[in-house]
Write a structure and sequence with these properties.
The protein is an alpha+beta fold. The chain is about 55% helix and about 15% strand. The strands form three sheets. Strands 3, 4, 5, 6, 7 and 8 form a six-stranded antiparallel beta sheet that branches. A two-stranded antiparallel sheet has the order 1-9.
């Protein structure tokens, strides 16, 4: 079972990563050392003092039938084409389909508002990056020109802005034509290890099938863990663990809300499935304690060899070029908790009684079900061979 589960500890690591960016090496080392100490203290407890495990072996677990949609295939092709796309700067007026760089300032009642201003913002006109009423004012501008206009936000927009009229000033820094190659056998042969579109797409299909099957296995492991937490009797928690988790969860929610223009409550409900921050934190704390209790009972330890191997895998998964760079941003204790969690999930997955069900049946509605029957049949055919 692939090691790619997401949990609070992973989010905590991401938060630590973000706080390390842009600092000098001494400041970064000091921050990491502080994080390591705080996290070590938070995990310095005996889970048996708080958790009495219930059933966690041979759990009956349903998990969704793997699927691959046509959109998944197209995304691979799009990424390949995007890498080969050229951008040629021009003095012509900006038009739909051009790659532009702009500075813009937005104000409401004379005051700038959050997310309403930026410098050097790059995007392709006509792809919906901004509202149509915004982009239509950029179209026709030439390099160095600016324009001022008003735009009213729709009524179904965020509470702070919905229905309000903003004044914008936009300056066009540059305009580039987007030169995209044609998707042909020759293009594929030149830019991939495959000789034709057919061969390339077959390889993509096989890779997507593996990824889809892995995603279903990961879902099964997470479902088993949720049952194990529900079956456990939990009384109290270490205050240091709760405090640390609360602080980092709050920072993550605030950062996510700002990044995606959401309310913090929306992040908590959508990403954590909780009604409020306190509930989200308590859920995460309980899960961490159950994970550690199972790991202790089943002697699921992380050897130095395991640590080095899995840390290297995680560093690649998180986009680091070397393990050394990864370890500069992540404390060892954080990594060990992630790896212990993965070992526990592997154990639960392998010991569960698994039942594969349809996406629609698993999620309870078609909200999460992506059309792609033919693509799903790819997986079924693979399984039957």
């Amino acid at each position: 079972m692939k090691k790619c589960y997401l949990n609070l500890a992973a989010f905590v690591c991401c938060a630590s990563l973000l706080t390390g960016c842009g600092k000098d090496s001494s400041a970064t080392e000091e921050a990491i050392s502080s994080t390591e100490a705080d996290f070590s203290e938070a995990l310095n407890y005996d889970p048996a003092d708080y958790v009495k495990l219930g059933d966690y072996k041979k759990l009956k677990v349903q998990y969704p039938l793997p699927y691959v949609s046509d959109e998944d295939m197209q995304m691979y092709i799009y990424d390949l084409m995007d890498e080969a796309t050229e951008y040629r700067e021009t003095e012509d007026a900006a038009k739909s389909g051009d790659y532009v760089k702009i500075d813009f300032t937005g104000t409401i009642d004379g005051k700038e508002f959050e997310g309403g201003s930026a410098s050097g913002y790059e995007f392709i006109l006509g792809q919906g990056e901004f509202f149509d009423d915004f982009e239509k004012n950029v179209i026709g501008l030439k390099k160095g020109e600016d324009v001022s206009f008003q735009m009213t936000f729709p009524e179904d927009y965020f509470d702070e802005l919905k229905g309000k009229t903003a004044d914008f000033k936009v300056t066009l820094q540059s305009v580039s034509q987007v030169i995209q190659p044609e998707y042909t056998d020759e293009f594929v042969a030149k830019n991939t290890e495959y000789s034709s579109i057919e061969e390339y797409e077959e390889a993509i299909r096989e890779e997507l099938i593996v990824e889809a099957q892995q995603a279903s296995e990961d879902e099964a492991g997470s479902s088993a863990l949720a049952q194990a937490v529900e079956n456990a009797k939990i009384e109290g928690y270490p205050q240091a663990l709760y405090d640390y988790t609360y602080q980092d969860t709050r920072e993550i929610c605030e950062g996510t809300a700002q990044m995606f223009g959401l309310e913090i409550d929306e992040v908590i409900q959508d990403y954590y499935g909780a009604e409020n921050l306190e509930e989200a934190v308590l859920d995460a704390v309980n899960e961490t304690m159950v994970i550690q209790a199972i790991a202790k009972k089943e002697k699921l330890e992380i050897s130095e060899k395991d640590f080095e191997k899995e840390a290297e895998n995680l560093s690649a998964e998180y986009g680091y070029e070397t393990l050394e760079e990864f370890e500069e941003d992540y404390s060892r204790t954080e990594l060990e908790l992630i790896l212990v969690r993965e070992k526990v999930l592997d154990f639960l997955y392998e010991s569960s009684e698994l039942e594969e069900v349809s996406q629609e049946e698993y999620y309870g509605s078609d909200e999460f079900f992506i059309e792609g029957t033919e693509s799903t049949e790819w997986i079924l055919e693979e399984d039957e061979e």
